[in-house]
């Protein structure tokens, strides 16, 4: 099962490499990863997606918690949550395709952020499967370049991950 | 406030931590620190002959005393030579602080002379690591390093110190912190009371119980309480390789070591049990054999300080996360309050069954009147000569298993071996560390002609400091454990497991200024042992020739359950 694990950790050099190292050392996979400082600049928030059954995820979270620089973490997929990913995608847009691509962008509520005579650069946010669906709709043959931010997530309601 | 250089701060911090010994080897990046060490007397530096030995010596010191072992190495090769020792300590949860020199801060990343990314290289084998980025931080980093190494599940901590941060002309105020506060590190201090009560209920209902005690009992100072608990309940106890001595070896309730080379009765007791009380143990692959077939009828109560150890390999029915000592204390109190007694009749039947297993296949080996000596006889003779009261360190291989099986450890911290990582070359430097900690104690290093050659240069260190370690070299002229596997699984093809061109160990010991003895006949063994141990102030290297064809038994059959064992070359369960 796909999981989104959100980690608050000390914003210190080397902290990120310990998290990444743990995954490779213990044979776990990281599907996507995003990390940036929070409103408190001594803390970073790291969000990663991984796959595994309950037992495996329990081991992953226990080992992450053992890392000295990890302050707190939550498996967002355990409760209601909001998931977003940002994608910038460059697609071929010539002739009749220009209108067709534009329509798809509107349907997916994306924005065309750069235009040339042959190329559209589109910005799209949403859950990862929505971004996948957009690529499917455009058709992979039309896609020139894709860059995705990795998943960010936050719990719904009053639950917060903070100190 | 006192103004000190970074180098002086490092040394002062060691003093403030009460460090007696630091094992190390100087080099360019740590010269400022060595100069500061030179100008004081309370921290004794022990000069080894190879950095790996420094880490094992500190490790042996830590295992024997419970105090953290401290190491200093220079950058680059000095640091990388310490990696095996870090990994050894990490696997066995040994508290250790390793200080490594680093090239000056502005050269980091430039592939400078003797530069290695030590933080990166050591990352998977340390509990934590620090890089000193500002000399002002040294007191706090040192305090944290010792705190992290010794609390929770102990482990090695590395402090990487660039040379410029120790410069003698840059002084900063020094005050050693009294307390550590870390928002991201809070080791568990108490087990869950509800879980402990639940465990007690389960123990009271048990008809075929067993206590399975690991290295956590020794490390966590839980031996006395565990012994009380076992006596109180009249349950059989089995120790892991790391747990030997955690429950007295000669106690009638001790069924011996369990696992791959455990006793028949220990493995049978485990397999047939209905409740297992696992204390400070990891349920690792050398114990469980195939986890899918592990103890099919048993409910598992698992006490460990590390939550990640619980249910890692085998699901625990009642997990208890907490320090062994505190949990056992509370468990004993909960037993007092419990209304009821253990099922005496069932326990009687259980003990009869165990006695039956012991009788049929207890520990034994065949001796050969005219043929070569057996390695087991050497360990038995060592036990006799030292009256069972020595500190025994070992290397890795057949001799290690024989020393675990045939020497009975009645006290914790007497059996010192690399259990998790299985590091050949551990025994001699570890024995040095133990001898420094207890200068008057009898320290024996049980080794083999393969392992001893992995750190034999330390004979020179032993001469320098007058360490009267007794080296029991069980010489079978082969890498015994490798050879055993080749006999059993590779059709007897002894690929690279011979030890050809062995040195004359007696002459070698003498060349290093020690006493050497060669023993080839069983009838000379006892006399030679007594003679060696009577030389209280000399290192004696006993080179004892034994049967090269001997195997370690019992031996669990790969992928089977705990009860599937080879009992000799021809018998299996």
What radius of gyration of chain A results from the CA coordinates? 18 Å
Give the helix proportion of chain B (percent range).
Answer: 25-40%
Can you write the helix and strand succession of chain A as a string? EHEEHEEHEEHEE
Task: Kindly state the number of beta strands of chain B.
Answer: 22
Q: Into which percent range does the helicity of residues of chain A fall?
A: 25-40%
Number of strands of chain A: 9
Question: What integer value in Å does the Rg of chain B equal?
Answer: 24 Å
Largest sheet of chain B: 6 strands, parallel
Mean pLDDT of chain B: 96
CATH topology title of the largest domain in chain B? Rossmann fold
CATH level-1 class of the largest domain in chain A:
Alpha Beta
Which stretches of chain A are low in confidence, meaning pLDDT under 50 for 5 or more residues running? none
Number of helices of chain A: 4
| Low-confidence sequence ranges of chain B | none
CA(first)-CA(last) distance of chain B: 71 Å
3D structure, described in words:
The complex is a heterodimer of chains A (163) and B (573). Chain A is built from 4 helices and 9 strands. Chain A is α+β, with helices and mostly antiparallel strands and 163 residues long. In chain A, strands 5, 6, 7, 8 and 9 form a 5-stranded antiparallel β-sheet that branches. Chain A has a 4-stranded antiparallel β-sheet with strand order 2-3-1-4, with helices on one face. Chain A has 2 domains: 77 residues, ACT domain (Alpha-Beta Plaits, 2-Layer Sandwich); 71 residues, ACT-like. Chain A, domain 2 (Alpha-Beta Plaits, 2-Layer Sandwich), CATH 3.30.70. Chain B has 573 residues and is of the alpha/beta class. Chain B has 3 domains: 173 residues, Thiamin diphosphate (ThDP)-binding fold, Pyr/PP domains (Rossmann fold), CATH 3.40.50.970; 169 residues, TPP-binding domain (Rossmann fold), CATH 3.40.50.1220; 178 residues, Rossmann fold. Chain B is 36% helix and 17% strand. In chain B, the strands form 5 sheets. In chain B, strands 3-2-4-5-7-6 form a 6-stranded parallel β-sheet, with helices on both faces. In chain B, strand 15, helix 16 and strand 16 form a beta-alpha-beta unit. The longest helix of chain B has 18 residues. At the A-B interface, helix 1 and helix 2 of A face strand 6 of B.
């Amino acid at each position: 099962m796909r999981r989104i694990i959100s980690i608050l950790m000390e914003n210190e050099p080397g902290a990120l490499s310990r998290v990444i190292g743990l995954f490779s050392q213990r044979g776990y996979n990281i599907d996507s990863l995003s990390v940036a400082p929070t409103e408190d600049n001594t803390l970073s928030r790291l969000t990663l997606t991984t796959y595994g059954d309950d037992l495996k995820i329990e081991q992953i979270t226990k080992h992450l918690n053992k890392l000295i620089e990890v302050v707190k973490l939550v498996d967002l997929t355990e409760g209601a949550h909001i998931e977003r990913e940002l994608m910038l995608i460059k697609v071929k847009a010539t002739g009749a395709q220009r209108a067709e691509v534009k329509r798809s962008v509107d349907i997916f509520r994306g924005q065309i952020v750069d235009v040339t005579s042959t190329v559209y650069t589109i910005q799209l946010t949403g859950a990862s499967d929505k971004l996948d669906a957009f690529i499917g709709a455009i058709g992979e043959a039309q896609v020139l370049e894709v860059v995705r931010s990795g998943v960010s997530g936050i719990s719904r309601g009053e639950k917060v991950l903070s100190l | 406030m006192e103004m000190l250089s970074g180098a002086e701060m490092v040394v002062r911090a060691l003093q403030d931590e009460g460090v007696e010994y630091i094992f190390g080897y100087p080099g360019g990046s740590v010269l400022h620190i060595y100069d500061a060490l030179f100008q004081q007397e309370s921290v004794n530096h022990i000069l080894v002959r190879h950095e790996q030995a420094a880490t094992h010596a500190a490790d042996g010191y830590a295992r024997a005393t419970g105090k953290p072992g401290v190491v200093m190495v220079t950058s680059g090769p000095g640091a990388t030579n310490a990696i095996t020792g870090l990994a050894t300590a990490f696997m066995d949860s040994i508290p250790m602080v390793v200080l490594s020199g680093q090239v000056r801060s502005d050269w980091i990343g430039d592939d400078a002379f003797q530069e290695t990314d030590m933080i990166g290289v050591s990352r998977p084998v340390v509990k934590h690591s620090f890089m000193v980025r500002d000399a002002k931080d040294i007191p706090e980093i040192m305090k944290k390093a010792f705190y992290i190494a010794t609390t929770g599940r102990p482990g090695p901590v590395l402090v990487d110190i660039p040379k410029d941060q120790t410069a003698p002309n840059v002084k900063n105020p020094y005050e050693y912190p009294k307390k550590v506060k870390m928002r991201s590190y809070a080791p568990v201090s108490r087990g869950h009371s509800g879980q402990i009560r639940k465990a007690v209920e389960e123990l009271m209902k048990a008809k075929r119980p067993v206590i399975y005690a690991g290295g956590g009992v020794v490390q966590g100072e839980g031996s006395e309480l565990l012994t009380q608990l076992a006596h109180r309940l009249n349950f059989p106890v089995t120790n892991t390789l790391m747990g030997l001595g955690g429950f007295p070896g000669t106690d009638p309730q001790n069924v011996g070591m369990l696992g791959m080379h455990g006793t028949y009765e220990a493995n049978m007791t485990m397999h047939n049990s209905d409740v297992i009380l696992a204390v400070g143990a990891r349920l690792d692959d050398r114990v469980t054999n195939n986890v899918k077939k592990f103890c099919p009828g048993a409910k598992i109560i698992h006490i460990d300080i590390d939550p990640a150890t619980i249910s890692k390999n085998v699901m625990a029915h009642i997990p208890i996360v907490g320090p062994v000592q505190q949990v056992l204390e509370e468990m004993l109190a909960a037993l007092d309050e419990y209304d009821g007694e253990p099922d005496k009749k069932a326990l009687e039947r259980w003990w009869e069954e165990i006695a039956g297993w012991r009788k049929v296949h207890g520990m034994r080996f065949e001796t050969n009147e005219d043929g070569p000596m057996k390695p087991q006889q050497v360990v038995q003779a060592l036990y006799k000569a030292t009256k069972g009261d020595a500190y025994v360190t070992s290397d890795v291989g057949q001799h290690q298993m024989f020393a675990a099986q045939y020497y009975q450890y009645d006290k914790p911290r007497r059996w010192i071996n690399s259990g998790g990582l299985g590091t050949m070359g551990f025994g001699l430097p570890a024995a040095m560390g133990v001898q420094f900690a207890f200068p008057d104690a009898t320290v024996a290093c049980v080794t083999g002609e393969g392992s001893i050659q992995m750190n034999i240069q330390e004979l020179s260190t032993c001469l320098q400091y007058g360490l009267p370690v007794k080296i029991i070299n069980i010489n079978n002229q082969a890498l015994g454990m490798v050879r055993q596997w080749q006999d059993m699984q590779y059709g007897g093809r002894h690929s690279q497991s011979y030890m050809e061109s062995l040195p004359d160990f007696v002459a070698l010991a003498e060349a290093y200024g020690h006493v050497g003895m060669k023993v080839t006949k069983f009838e000379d063994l006892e006399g030679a042992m007594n003679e060696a141990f009577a030389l209280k102030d000399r290192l004696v290297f006993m080179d004892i020739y034994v049967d090269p064809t001997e195997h370690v038994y019992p031996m669990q059959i790969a992928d089977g359950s705990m009860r599937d064992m080879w009992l000799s070359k021809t018998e299996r369960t």
